[in-house]
Amino acid sequence: MLLKHPRLPLPFARQRRRRLRAWRRTRPFWGGLLVILGGAELLLVPLSPLTVLVSLGLGGIAAIGIGAALVVAGLFLWFLPQARAYVSVHALLLSVLSFPATNLGGFLAGMLLGIAGSALAFGWTPLPDEAAPRAAAGQDPCERRPRGTGPRALAAVLPVLLAAALATGAPPARAAGRPDGPPTAPRTPPTVTTSLFAPQGFAFAGVTEVATADGPLRVLVLKMGAASLADYRLRTRDGHEEYGLAATSLELRGNVTLYLTKFSGCIEGLVCVTFSPDGLPAPPVIPPFVFMTRVSAEQALVTSDLIVTDGLRLEAS
């Protein structure tokens, strides 16, 4: 006797489709998919039989690296949509670089898929605040959206994307100053400088707001397991008096969270960049071996399980 596999009830299948649709609409899904397909296409030729790989030479090896990086970038667009501006610009640069570095960008197919996907991801915009609860409930978040609004592909060419990336930040997160958020920040963020900043387990946690006496303040949220700072200097002003802390070295250990209004420095001492809540967003993840020199930051708050200093001095003027 043959047993037939029971068919799923129609309401359950429809609910699954609604949940998948709601998940897609809370992230640049199609842009990420095109970037992944472009990376996969670049991987196809060099991962073919050994005779083909040998004939391709360095171009085949470069295609493996760029293709794998594009696949990872597409996954970041799916699972870390708040970093879409940073990831999509880098995916665009990798796609263009694949033309001279590999076999003509996967015979143009992989390069064009990567460019189209990164443009879609960069131009994607999140749902309005009132539509987010509907998406989380599995409902169609676009049922009451006026016609002519919604996600748009705002960029299609390389110069426009590169220029707009410098003025695009991550979407704001929940406001702080609540029982489950950080404490109230000072009215004027202190300025911190250090000659060497070496984080461990660094991750960009988005943009949020912290409460101050003058109202909410937008900040970058950087989280890490630990951090080492050399030649640490902190300057803060209370009225007409200026106070400062100085230390030969400072170690932050365990659940370190930095709330910064501005963060600048030179990566590996070579490439100098400036991150801010309304400017260039910080990268989502930094490898553990990366360090920064000549760092200057406006620090609203910092939390850590343990702070160890050497040669701490208090200064006032």
List the topology elements:
Layout: H1 10-24, H2 29-44, H3 50-56, H4 58-79, H5 84-101, H6 104-107, H7 109-123, H8 132-136, H9 158-165, E1 172-175, E2 191-200, E3 203-212, E4 215-238, E5 241-267, E6 271-275, E7 292-303, E8 306-310, E9 313-316
Parallel strand pairs: 1-3
Antiparallel strand pairs: 2-4, 2-7, 3-4, 4-5, 5-6, 5-7, 5-8, 5-9
Walkthrough of the structure:
The protein has nine helices and nine strands. 35% of the residues lie in helices and 32% in strands. Mean pLDDT is 75; it is low at 140-179. By secondary structure, the chain is an alpha+beta fold.
* Sequence of secondary-structure elements: HHHHHHHHHEEEEEEEEE
How far apart are the termini? 92 Å
- Assign a percent range to the helix content: 25-40%
Largest sheet: 9 strands, mixed
Range of strand content: 25-35%
Oligomer: single chain
Structural class: alpha+beta
Discrete helix count: 9
Number of strands: 9
The Rg value, from CA coordinates, equals 24 Å
Shape: globular
**Mean of the pLDDT scores?**
75
